[in-house]
Amino acid sequence: MNDKNLTRKEFLKLSGAAAGAGLLATSGLGSVASAQASDLLHRPIHSTGEMIPAVGLGTALDFGDLSADFEKRKGAIEALFREGGTVIDTSPTYSDAEQIVGRALDELGARDKCFLATKTSVRGGKQEGIDQNTKSYQDLKTNTFDLLQVHNLRGTEEHLETINGLREEGKVRYVGITHFRDNQNDDAVAVMENHKIDFIQCHYNLLNRSVEERVLPAAREHGVAVMINVPFARGGLFGPTAGAGLEIPEWAKDFGVDTWGKFFLKFILGHEDVTVIIPGTINDYHVVDNIGALRGRLPTQAERERMFQFIADL
Ligand SMILES: NC(=O)c1ccc[n+]([C@@H]2O[C@H](COP(=O)([O-])OP(=O)(O)OC[C@H]3O[C@@H](n4cnc5c(N)ncnc54)[C@H](OP(=O)(O)O)[C@@H]3O)[C@@H](O)[C@H]2O)c1
User: For the chain, which residues score pLDDT lower than 70?
Assistant: First the structure.
């Protein structure tokens, strides 16, 4: 997906304005990050009450290419912390994303600023999952994952057992599952009904609202935090909007939308059962844009339906 709704030039202008207002660190990971974070929407992880910024960073698409520009990817991670974000979602199956995230966190000295989520992602059995987890700790250069998730409900029973064991050893803080297909919604609900998990990760965006029916209500009922993947439909939402040169509707500016990225993210954040969204990007200026969705008010339910209809009518 190559459509961008914020160009590098616009980003530099935005950064300049923010720096002028004392909002950006001038070098490295300055202490302004924590001051700035207080402006941002945070939501609780229900099982503990811990608050996390409600937008983070995903690493599934282009992030894991070791032959590509490492500094660019490190720059996206640096921008996340500088802007007040903390959550990074990765997986041993996102090419070499874990190695890149691990190296970047190490070079930035930022492991303790990060809420680091990864996955057990094997088609094989319990031991394959354990072996994969061992490599993930090495690649991510850490002794603890903030969140370890069973990827796409593959081997849920045996891997949840392993992950719960790691939690008892202090090597995992939160336990979760992920999925992104509509036909897995019922299975995801069954896991929430039959296991004690802290997080569910699922698919929700303006083109696909299927989790509103059963998954989000079940998460609420069972006190499970919700992490949203593919918020931009893998970038597909930008084609008919930013890519077509479409202006942001005036009425969306009432709730702080000035880019298409914010339009799509604020729609999701407007659902109160969403804990955190993890938009994927390798670009620092898109991280700035995405974290920006955490400022200002959220759309009301009526405004959310208007947003949905606007996109449906394109
Ligand atoms: N089953 C699972 O567990 C599962 C499944 C799918 C995804 N995930 C997780 O969810 C994350 C998000 O999903 P995704 O990365 O597949 O898709 P996505 O977040 O819906 O879309 C990513 C695309 O949006 C573009 N983008 C990001 N921010 C933008 C902005 N502000 N303006 C314009 N374009 C922007 C990116 O381009 P640039 O890179 O060029 O900025 C990239 O092409 C993944 O990275 C992964 O961590 C998990």
Answer: 1-37
What are the domain boundaries of the chain?
31-312
Sheet with 115-120: list strands edge to edge.
Answer: 57-58, 87-89, 115-120, 145-150, 172-178, 199-203, 225-229, 276-277
50-97 tens-digit pLDDT: 999 999 999 999 999 999 999 999 999 999 999 999 999 999 999 999
Confidence (pTM): 0.91
Cα 162 versus chain centre, distance: 24
* Predicted pLDDT at 123: 85
Which ligand 1 atom is at minimum distance from the Cα of 179?
A: 1
Nearest Cα residue to atom 15 of ligand 1: 280
Q: Which residue has the tokens 């319990």?
A: 126
pLDDT for the residue numbered 38: 75
Torsion, Cα of 108, 109, 114, 118 (10° steps):
80
DSSP β-bridge partners for residue 172: 145
Return the best residue to mutate from 153, 230, 248 for the ligand 1 pocket (most ligand atoms within 8 A of CB): 230
Least Cα distance to 104 among 146, 57, 151, 150 occurs for 57
* Mutation to probe ligand 1, out of 281, 285, 287, 294 (largest number of atoms < 8 A from CB): 281
Of all protein residues, the one whose alpha carbon is nearest to atom 27 of ligand 1 is 281
Q: Which residue has its alpha carbon closest to ligand 1 atom 1?
A: 179
The third-level CATH classification (topology) of the domain covering 31-312 is TIM Barrel (3.20.20)
Which residues on adjacent β-strands are paired with residue 276?
227
